[in-house]
Write a structure and sequence with these properties.
The protein is mainly α and 197 residues long. The protein has three helices and no strands.
Length: 197
C-alpha cells in the first residue's frame, strides 16, 4: 500500500504538476495575449498620432506650397515692376542724354556765334580806331588847308595895281618869279595836306 500511496502521491503530484503546468501555460499565454493587446493598442495610438502628424504635415506642406506660389507671383510682379522701372529709367536717361546733347550743341553754336561776334567786334573796333585816327588826321589837314587858302586869299587881297604892273615887267621879271615861287609854295602846301584814305 505504501507503493500505492506513493503511486497515488506521485500521480497526484504529477497531476498537480501537470495541472499547475497547464495552469502556468495558460497564464503565460493570457499574459502574452494581454501584452500583445496592449502593444497593439499602443501601436494604434502611435499610428493615429502619426497619421494626425502626417495630416498636419500635409496641411503645412499645402500651406507652404500656397505661400511659395504667392511668393513666386509676388517675385514675378516685383521683377516685372523692376523691369518696367529700369526701362522707364533708361528711357528718361536716354531723353536726358538727348536733351543734354541738344543743349551742348546749342551751347557750342552760341559759343561759336559769340566768338564770331567778338572777332567782328575786335575787327570793327580796330577799324573804328583807324577811322578815328584818319578822321583826326583829315581834320588837322583840313585846318591847314583852310589856313593855306586864307593865306592865298589874303595875298590876293594885298595885290595892288603896282604889284600887277611890276609883275608884268618884261625885262627882269623878278616879281613874276617871286609870285610863281609863292604860288608853287602854296600849291605844295595844298599837296601836303591831301588826305590818303
Amino acid at each position: 500500500m505504501r507503493i500505492c500511496t506513493r503511486l497515488v502521491v506521485i500521480a497526484a503530484v504529477t497531476l498537480l504538476s501537470s495541472a499547475a503546468l497547464a495552469q502556468s501555460e495558460t497564464d503565460r499565454l493570457r499574459e502574452a495575449l494581454r501584452s500583445a493587446t496592449m502593444q497593439t493598442r499602443a501601436l494604434e495610438d502611435q499610428r493615429t498620432a502619426l497619421q494626425a502628424k502626417l495630416a498636419e504635415a500635409d496641411r503645412d506642406k499645402a500651406a507652404a506650397k500656397a505661400e511659395i506660389e504667392v511668393a513666386k507671383a509676388q517675385v514675378k510682379k516685383i521683377e516685372k515692376e523692376h523691369r518696367e522701372a529700369v526701362g522707364e529709367f533708361n528711357q528718361r536717361l536716354a531723353d536726358r542724354d538727348q536733351t543734354l546733347d541738344k543743349w551742348k550743341t546749342a551751347y557750342e553754336e552760341a559759343a561759336a556765334v559769340a566768338r564770331t561776334r567778338d572777332a567782328e567786334r575786335a575787327k570793327f573796333e580796330g577799324a573804328a580806331t583807324a577811322y578815328k585816327a584818319s578822321t583826326k588826321s583829315c581834320v588837322a589837314k583840313n585846318t591847314l588847308l583852310v589856313k593855306a587858302g586864307k593865306d592865298l586869299v589874303q595875298r590876293y587881297k594885298e595885290v595892288t595895281i603896282g604889284d600887277t604892273i611890276v609883275a608884268r615887267e618884261p625885262l627882269l621879271e623878278l616879281r613874276r618869279v617871286e609870285l610863281q615861287n609863292q604860288l608853287q609854295e602854296t600849291y605844295d602846301k595844298f599837296l601836303d595836306q591831301r588826305a590818303n584814305p
